[in-house]
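Sequence and structure are kept together here, with a separate record for every protein. An example record follows, reproduced without changes.
>
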Amino acid sequence: MEQAEKAIAAFVKAGDNRDVAALESILHPRFQNIQDGFFDEKGIFVFSKSDYIELIRTKRFGGSPRSLVINSIKQSDNMAIAQVTLESEYLIFHSLIICVRDNRNWKIINNTPMIAAK
């Protein structure tokens, strides 16, 4: 479980720091970010790995340090599912993050945040 937790922390830190190289490394090729709403737009938005990295690269996502609390995590041999709370100066994220073991390395394959303003 410790390795999955490290992968989650690395994912959060990479977003906070807008570290595209780190995201390339930690995100699974089939990564998806699924969220309800996109700034002022309503609806469900699904972003692929390349979409998500582009949102970070163009500074639409990321750039604000967030605290990370792993509220719960359950792990099987090759998958871990975590409920986390991330809090920045402006937003609170209640997220479901799914990690998978890929060639001995843990990768983030799904992030499903519920985002609220503070």
